[in-house]
Amino acid sequence: MSDNTAGPTAEPISPSAPEEFGLVQVWWGDGKGKTTAALGMATRAVGHGYRVHLLQFMKGGTSTVEDVRGEYNAIAALPGFSYENAGHYGWHGFLDGSEDDEHEARAKGALDRAREIMQASADADLSTPQDADGPPEDGVNMLVLDEILYAANRGLVDPEDVLGLIESKPDDLELVLTGGHERPEFLTDHADLITEVSKEKHPIDAGQGARKGTEF
């Protein structure tokens, strides 16, 4: 009897250019899974040979979460996938000993970095395959700005600056914005996909801390 449980055979990943990229996606809400969803989609894109960069605005370490997250190790092992974290240690406004001024400075630095990568992508020919080993300054097919909406909710970046990123986006760059528990009304008319990730039940409400391998 033949074994039909193995599923499709994985193929080698080689650089390729997406034919239908160019939308703006928004993932927000009070539920777990916004970054997780974005990373899953980014992994799918990388599997097709597309160039992806993850720029995290807020995810620094805390007393209960390690600085090195599992996704960083996984991303480093995938061709065409890169990341950087601009977040300050701790969480803004949480009275955890972190300096709010430093959070704001880091968030604005991340905004400038997003503009830089956006411009590089505009200058690049995204209709041709991008070098999987090339720096994001050479241009990317998908840019994930993780927790940028949280930064906008907190006033660390101006929502108008977020809109400015969308307006300057190259037509063939897929832009993914995540974060925030407050509905980003300012994006309603500017995003092509908006998903609210809502919480029905979460173990944190029962005192469970962040778990290695699920939350970081």
Structure overview:
The protein has 5 helices and 6 strands. The chain has 216 residues and is of the alpha/beta class. It has one domain (24-89, 97-193): 3-Layer(aba) Sandwich (Rossmann fold). It has a 6-stranded parallel β-sheet, with helices on both faces. The protein is globular. Residues 88-98 have low confidence and may be disordered.
Mean pLDDT value: 87
Strand line-up of the largest beta sheet: 3-2-4-5-1-6
Low-confidence regions:
88-98
Strand content: 5-15%
Helix content: 25-40%
> Element order, helices and strands?
EHEHEHEHHEE
Continuous helix count: 5
Globally, the shape reads globular
CATH class term? Alpha Beta
Report the strand count: 6
CATH fold name? Rossmann fold
Organism: Haloarcula mannanilytica
InterPro entries: CblAdoTrfase_CobA (IPR003724), P-loop_NTPase (IPR027417)
Keywords: Transferase
Protein name: Cob(I)alamin adenosyltransferase
Helices and strands, with pairings:
Blueprint: E1 24-28, H1 34-47, E2 52-56, H2 70-76, E3 81-85, H3 100-123, E4 142-146, H4 148-153, H5 159-167, E5 174-178, E6 193-196
Parallel strand pairs: 1-5, 1-6, 2-3, 2-4, 4-5
Short description:
By secondary structure, the protein is of the alpha/beta class. It is 28% helix and 13% strand.
